């Protein structure tokens, strides 16, 4: 099955075979070396040149676990968090802040536009209690890249800290972590890194890590300084998904061999191919081209074709597409182009799509 959903993605045979490596105990040196290697490779891939200023912490759990770990670990007592919200994942950030009342009202923006950095500046001036700003890099809801660099400039100029959910961004969209002085950046193995779901990580600015250690411990399982201290000692607080880490390590080897910039370029080419053909077929994109990311395109459902019908007919032909979420659920469908796929795979999908579209028009 070809997966055109934004994670889990199709992985290479090489990554899948890594699952077969020997059983090991997570308290032994083999596991410590594996984890150390993954952390180093994450910095090499995503903070090239700035490896000494950042560290990476590895977690077991899907992307959301690492986002929640970053959020719950990054606020001093009595301080609050402001969420920039222009999609489902912005909403999720906001929902995460809810149970422990860490948030102030979200800074909401239209789902089909970019957040305005000047509005952020104003909000931060009005809310001195908001010490941290949480934002999504690539809003998977619509396939829109938020202007992280511009927003980070405002965050930095207002002496606040940043938490960036780049779960669907890293290895798919450029992100200058060190140049934008980002504090916490969250990612997952199971999207553009082309590993399996279930392993995730937080890249943390080192100076900030010292501050985190003095912040309240709001969670037992997801307290980042705990993971950091243990991983620095070659240990780990809880039983990790060892086999997934093997595959994650191999996916990072592949990524470093391909090069992050080349990976991004490959995705961009796949997206361009999809967009060109969809335009030719008269299928309308939700966002204007200048807002579209490299890895997801959201389309209006063709008139008379419901999502379940479109989905099922494509699945019969071997392709899984993705529904819209929230208020867009009935209106759009999404095509992701992440994963170990070739242009030939996308050609195959586009031929199947055309067939479904034409046969549905006849039936309609
Ligand atoms: C996929 C995704 C997540 C995390 O989802 P999980 O299902 O927990 O892996 C978080 N944020 C964004 C922007 C995502 O695309």
How would you state the average pLDDT, rounded? 96
Bound molecules: pyridoxal-5'-phosphate
Strand content: 15-25%
Judging by the overall fold, what is the CATH architecture of the largest domain?
3-Layer(aba) Sandwich
Description:
- This protein folds into two domains: 14-258, Type I PLP-dependent aspartate aminotransferase-like (Major domain) (Aspartate Aminotransferase, domain 2); 260-359, Alpha-Beta Complex (Aspartate Aminotransferase, domain 1).
- 41% of the residues lie in helices and 16% in strands.
- The chain has twelve helices and 14 strands.
- It has helices at 13-17, 29-46, 63-73, 88-97, 117-126, 148-157, 206-212, 224-232, 242-258, 260-280, 307-316, 343-363, and strands spanning 2-3, 54-60, 80-85, 107-108, 130-136, 138-139, 144-145, 161-165, 184-188, 199-205, 296-300, 319-320, 322-323, 332-336.
- The protein has a seven-stranded mixed sheet, with helices on both faces. A three-stranded antiparallel sheet has the order 11-14-13, with no helix packed on it.
- It binds pyridoxal-5'-phosphate.
- The site of pyridoxal-5'-phosphate has 14 residues, from α3.
């Amino acid at each position: 099955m070809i997966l055109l959903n934004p994670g889990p993605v199709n992985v290479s045979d090489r990554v899948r075979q890594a699952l077969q490596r020997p059983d090991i105990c997570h308290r032994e040196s083999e596991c410590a070396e594996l984890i150390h290697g993954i952390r180093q490779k994450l910095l090499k891939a995503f903070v090239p040149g700035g490896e000494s200023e950042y560290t990476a912490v590895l977690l077991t759990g899907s992307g959301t676990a690492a986002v929640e770990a970053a959020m719950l670990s990054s606020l001093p007592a009595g301080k609050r968090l402001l969420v920039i919200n222009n999609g489902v994942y912005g909403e999720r950030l906001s929902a995460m802040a809810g149970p422990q009342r860490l948030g102030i009202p979200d800074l909401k923006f239209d789902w089909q536009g970019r957040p305005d950095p000047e509005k952020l500046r104003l909000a931060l001036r009005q809310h001195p209690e908001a010490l941290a700003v949480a934002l999504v890099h690539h809003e998977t809801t619509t396939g829109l890249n938020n202007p992280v660099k511009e927003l980070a400039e405002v965050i930095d100029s207002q002496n606040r800290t940043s938490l960036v959910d780049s779960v669907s961004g890293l290895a798919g969209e450029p992100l200058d972590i060190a140049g934008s002085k980002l504090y916490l950046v969250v990612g997952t193995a199971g999207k553009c890194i082309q590993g399996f779901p279930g392993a995730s990580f937080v890249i943390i600015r080192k100076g900030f890590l010292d501050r985190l250690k003095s912040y309240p411990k709001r969670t037992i399982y997801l307290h980042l300084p705990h993971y950091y201290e243990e991983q620095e000692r070659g240990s780990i607080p809880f039983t990790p998904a060892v086999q997934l880490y093997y595959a994650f390590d191999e996916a990072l080897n592949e990524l470093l061999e391909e090069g992050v910039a080349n990976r991004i370029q490959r995705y961009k080419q796949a997206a361009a191919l999809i967009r060109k053909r969809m335009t030719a077929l008269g299928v309308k994109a939700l966002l204007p081209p200048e807002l579209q990311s490299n890895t997801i395109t959201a389309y209006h459902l063709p008139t008379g074709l419901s999502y379940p019908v479109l989905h099922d007919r494509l699945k019969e032909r071997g392709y899984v597409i993705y529904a819209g979420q929230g208020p867009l659920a009935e209106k759009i469908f999404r095509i992701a182009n992440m994963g170990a796929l070739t242009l030939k795979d996308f050609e195959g999908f586009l031929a199947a799509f055309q067939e479904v579209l034409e046969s549905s028009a006849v039936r309609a």
